[in-house]
Amino acid sequence: MEEKYPNLVQRFQSTFIDTIMLIIFMIIFSNILNRFQNVPDWVRITLFVSIFIAYEPLLMTFGCTIGNYVKGIRVRKYSDSSRRINIFQAVLRYPLKIGLGWISFLTINTNDERRAIHDLVSGSVMIKL
What we know:
The protein is mostly helical. The protein is built from 5 helices and 2 strands; from the N terminus they run αααβααβ.
């Protein structure tokens, strides 16, 4: 079966949905912490940073992010697109994606699999279901 690959717009939409989800999670946790008196700032900061850092790598390892689910796209191993990426690949991929921002997507139209720089480095590929 021939694989189909998401275009830049679909990937952006997925990322936008994930950003909204991160904001929602932070609001929920903020409201939970507001129910307690004298929560130290370091607890809030640690929780919010943990959510931001862990969201994508953990969800990618166990299946897909909410944005990927909604858009019907998945991150898979480039060597075998039927297999999910492992935690090492997810942890390598995410900071590159965040750090490079839009620059990472410059390679999408230069290869047949529409792989971004963070996909090329981490050995991953995005596929459409």
